[in-house]
Specification:
The structure holds two protein chains of two kinds.
Chain A: E1 5-11, H1 22-37, E2 46-50, H2 58-66, E3 73-76, H3 82-95, E4 101-108, H4 135-150, H5 154-168, H6 182-187, E5 190-192, E6 195-196, E7 206-213, H7 215-222, E8 228-237, H8 250-265, E9 274-276, H9 282-291, H10 300-306, H11 322-325, H12 330-346, E10 359-366, E11 370-377
Parallel strand pairs in A: 2-3, 2-4, 9-10
Antiparallel strand pairs in A: 1-7, 1-8, 4-7, 5-6, 8-11, 10-11
Helix pairs in contact in A: 1-2, 3-12, 4-9, 5-9, 5-10, 8-9, 9-10
Chain B: E1 2-4, E2 9-10, E3 19-25, E4 31-33, E5 48-52, E6 56-65, E7 76-83, E8 87-93, E9 108-118, E10 124-132
Parallel strand pairs in B: 1-10
Antiparallel strand pairs in B: 2-3, 3-4, 3-5, 6-7, 6-9, 7-8, 9-10
The chains are: A alpha/beta, B mainly beta.
C-alpha cells in the first residue's frame, strides 16, 4: 500500500434545494473539488459515491451531469457513514496502486423528510408501541446512559449545540448561521428527552467531493505547496455487546475505530489539532469525546464545560458547525468532514481557523452500525 | 383472531397467557430475543435453545418521546428494559405519567400484554409493554 494525498475538496452550502437532483448537487461539488485540485473530470480514473436514499447509481447520476467518461463507479450506502465509506473506497483505489487519481463524492437530497426512518404507515409498525427505534430517541437514550453512569447534565449536552452553532457563524457553507444561547437550546421544544429541537441535526440537501491521488501526482499538482496526506483510514462495525441489539451501541465501534486510526497514523489524541465528529444529536458529541480519547472516561461533561472543544480551546471540535448547524445531508456528511479538515490544514478556514494546524480527525457513524475515521496530516 | 405485533410474542393456542420467546446459546450462554440459528457473540451455529423470557425486568434507560411519526400518540415513555436472563428489549413503559420525575434508572418493571390495534383483516394485534412492578 502506498501513501495517498488529498489534492482537492469542495462542497456546496448545505440547505434546501428542492429543484435539484443528486446529479446536480454532486456535480457542483465535484467541479469545486476539481478546480481546487487543478484537474478535469477527464483526469479522474475512478469514482466512489456515497448516498443513502437515492443510492441506485448515485455516482453515475453525477457523471451524467458533468462528464460521462466511462470510468468505474462504486456506489456506497453505509447509513450516515456513506460519504466517509466512499472516501475510504477512493483512498484504497489509490493506495492499492490500481489508480492514480480517484474521486469521492457524497450527495443527499432529503427534502423535508422529517424524522429518519419514521414509518409511513404507523398502523403496521411497532414504532411507538414497542419503544422507539427513531434516531432522536436512540440518541436520547445514548445520552441517558452517560447521565446514568457519570451524572452528566442536560445543560452539558445543550452546550454542545450552543458551541457548534457559534462555530457555524464563521462557516458560509453551513445550513444555519444562527447564534443560540443556552436558554434558546434548553427552551426549544423537546423532541426526545433530553434532546430538544436545537440539539437535533436538521435534514437538508447537499453534496461534497474530494480528490485523492498518488504521491507522484500529489507532488506534481502541489507545485511546492502544502501536501495533505491521509495518515489513517479506519472502518469498523459493531462488535457484539450485550444491549446492542436493543439499543445500537455507538461507543464500542468508535473506540475500536479510533484505536486503529491512531495506530495507523502513529499519532495520539494529543496530536490532533481539530476534530470533525458525528454530532447528529448534542448527546452524541459528548460520548465521542471519550470514544475518541479526547478526555478520560466520564470526563466529557467537564471537557465541554472547560471550553477545550470550542474554537480557541485545546482541541476544537466541529469547527464547521457540525451536523447540528452545518447540516447533515446524509451521504454528503462524511466527505464534508474531510473538506473541513483539509481547509484547516491548509489555513483556509477563515475566521474559524485553528492556528498551527498539523493533524485533524474526521469521524462519522452510521447506525446499524458503521464507524469511519480518517486522520489527515500535513 | 389475535396476532402478535412481532414474531417473538407467543400467543398460546386456546387462550393461555402470552409470553416472550427467546433463545439461549448452549455454547456460550448468551440469551437473545426471539429465535435464531446462530450466535453472533461466539459464532456457533445449531446451538440455540428456545426459552421463555422473564416477565419482570429493570428499566436500564428511558427517554420521553415528544415528536414521532403522524399517528403515534405522544408523549410516551420509551425504554430499554433489561431482563434477568441478560437480554434487553425496547419497550414502552406505561402506567405512569410521562414525566422525568416519575422515572428512575433501574426501576423494577413487570411485563403485560395488550391489544393495541386491529389490522385491515380485523385481527387484534397484541403487543407487550411494561409498567412499574407491583411491590
Amino acid at each position: 500500500m502506498r501513501d495517498v494525498y488529498v489534492v482537492g475538496v469542495g462542497m456546496i452550502k448545505f440547505g434546501r434545494y428542492p429543484e435539484m437532483d443528486i446529479g446536480e448537487l454532486g456535480g457542483q461539488a465535484v467541479h469545486l473539488a476539481l478546480k481546487d485540485a487543478g484537474l478535469s473530470i477527464k483526469d479522474v480514473q475512478m469514482v466512489a459515491s456515497g448516498n443513502l436514499y437515492q443510492t441506485n447509481m448515485s455516482g453515475q447520476r453525477v457523471l451524467k451531469e458533468i462528464g460521462m467518461t466511462g470510468v468505474p463507479v462504486y456506489n456506497v450506502a453505509n447509513a450516515c457513514a456513506s460519504g466517509s465509506t466512499a472516501f475510504r473506497e477512493a483512498y484504497f483505489a489509490v493506495a492499492s496502486g490500481a489508480y492514480d487519481i480517484a474521486l469521492a463524492v457524497g450527495t443527499e437530497q432529503m427534502g423535508k423528510m422529517g424524522l429518519l426512518g419514521a414509518p409511513r404507515d404507523p398502523s403496521t409498525s411497532p414504532e411507538g408501541v414497542l419503544g422507539t427505534g427513531l434516531m432522536p430517541g436512540v440518541f436520547g437514550m445514548a445520552g441517558m446512559e452517560h447521565m446514568r453512569k457519570y451524572g452528566t447534565t442536560i445543560e452539558q449536552f445543550a452546550k454542545v449545540s450552543v458551541k457548534n452553532h457559534k462555530h457555524a457563524i464563521y462557516n458560509p457553507l453551513s445550513q444555519y448561521q444562527v447564534e443560540l444561547s443556552l436558554e434558546d437550546v434548553l427552551n426549544s421544544r423537546m423532541v426526545s428527552y433530553p434532546n430538544t429541537l436545537y440539539m437535533c441535526c436538521p435534514t437538508g440537501d447537499g453534496a461534497a467531493a474530494a480528490i485523492v491521488v498518488s504521491p507522484e501526482k500529489a507532488r506534481q499538482l502541489a507545485g511546492g505547496g502544502t501536501l495533505i496526506k491521509v495518515a489513517a483510514s479506519a472502518l469498523t462495525t459493531d462488535p457484539f455487546t450485550p444491549r446492542d441489539l436493543a439499543l445500537a451501541d455507538v461507543n464500542t465501534m468508535t473506540r475500536n475505530c479510533a484505536r486503529q486510526a491512531y495506530e495507523q497514523a502513529g499519532l495520539g489524541p494529543q496530536d490532533i489539532n481539530s476534530v470533525e465528529l458525528h454530532d447528529c444529536f448534542a448527546t452524541a458529541e459528548l460520548l465521542h469525546y471519550e470514544n475518541l480519547e479526547l478526555c478520560g472516561e466520564g470526563e466529557a461533561g467537564r471537557l465541554i464545560d472547560s471550553g477545550a472543544t470550542a474554537l480557541g480551546g485545546r482541541v476544537p471540535v466541529n469547527t464547521s458547525g457540525g451536523l447540528l448547524s452545518k447540516g447533515h445531508p446524509i451521504g454528503a456528511t462524511g466527505v464534508a468532514n474531510i473538506c473541513e479538515i483539509v481547509w484547516q490544514l491548509r489555513g483556509q478556514a477563515g475566521q474559524r481557523q485553528v492556528p498551527n494546524h498539523k493533524a485533524g480527525l474526521a469521524h462519522t457513524i452510521g447506525l446499524g452500525s458503521a464507524c469511519a475515521i480518517h486522520i489527515l496530516t500535513k | 383472531m389475535q396476532r402478535p405485533i412481532v414474531p417473538f410474542i407467543k400467543l398460546p393456542e386456546g387462550g393461555g397467557t402470552p409470553y416472550l420467546v427467546g433463545s439461549r446459546c448452549k455454547a456460550c450462554g448468551q440469551v437473545y430475543v426471539g429465535t435464531r440459528r446462530s450466535c453472533p457473540r461466539c459464532y456457533e451455529t445449531g446451538q440455540m435453545q428456545e426459552i421463555r423470557l422473564s416477565d419482570r425486568g429493570e428499566l436500564y434507560l428511558w427517554t420521553i418521546v415528544h415528536q414521532s411519526a403522524p399517528g403515534i400518540n405522544v408523549p410516551y415513555v420509551a425504554g430499554i428494559v433489561d431482563l434477568p436472563e441478560g437480554v434487553s428489549l425496547r419497550a414502552n413503559v406505561e402506567g405512569i405519567e410521562p414525566k422525568p420525575e416519575n422515572l428512575r434508572f433501574g426501576m423494577p418493571l413487570e411485563l403485560f400484554f395488550e391489544v393495541v390495534r386491529q389490522d385491515r383483516e380485523g385481527n387484534e394485534i397484541v403487543a407487550y409493554k411494561f409498567r412499574p412492578a407491583a411491590a
